[in-house]
Write a structure and sequence with these properties.
Radius of gyration: 15 Å
Shape: globular
Largest sheet: none
Strand content: under 5%
Order of helices and strands: HHHHHHHH
Number of domains: 1
Number of helices: 8
Distance between the termini: 42 Å
Helix content: 55-70%
């Protein structure tokens, strides 16, 4: 799988795209929610680029030999960690998680694949549903 520049709009969008495809199909409602949230602008993308990133991700997963079953089924923890490592900016992490959660919830069902990607993001970035790491550290510090 290609690498995008660190903290780039494309790297961030690829994680959102991974959530979109992780349940085996992309619903219109998911793209509609992202459009309502102005996700492309939020991530710093040019208009109409997100569908291209979704398509490119699917091609890369298929070309990489991940075509046995669902596309996300063979994206292991190491691959997820590598993708998450491309985003280190706390504000961008928060945006990605917030947009990903909105897309995952758009069809009224959180599929297993969606949950896997979202949990990987939370774990790697130490976030809780869009909360910025600094807020979490402050809350933890105040509690101790």
């Amino acid at each position: 799988m290609r690498s995008y520049p660190h903290n780039s709009p494309e790297a961030a969008a690829r994680i959102v795209a991974l959530v979109l495809i992780s349940d085996g199909h992309v619903c219109r409602s998911e793209f509609e929610v992202l459009k309502q949230l102005d996700a492309e602008r939020e991530l710093g993308l040019e208009p109409q680029i997100l569908p291209h990133i979704v398509h490119t991700l699917c091609e890369e997963l298929l070309a990489g030999g991940y075509a046995t079953g669902s596309l996300i089924g063979n994206v292991d923890d190491s691959a997820l960690a590598s993708l998450m490592a491309e985003i280190s900016d706390p504000t961008l992490q928060s945006k990605v998680l917030r947009l990903s959660m909105a897309a995952a919830r758009a069809d009224g069902h959180l599929a297993d694949g969606e949950a896997v990607v979202l949990e990987a993001a939370r774990r790697h970035w130490k976030l809780v549903d869009g909360e910025e790491p600094s807020a979490k550290k402050v809350a933890h510090h105040q509690a101790t």
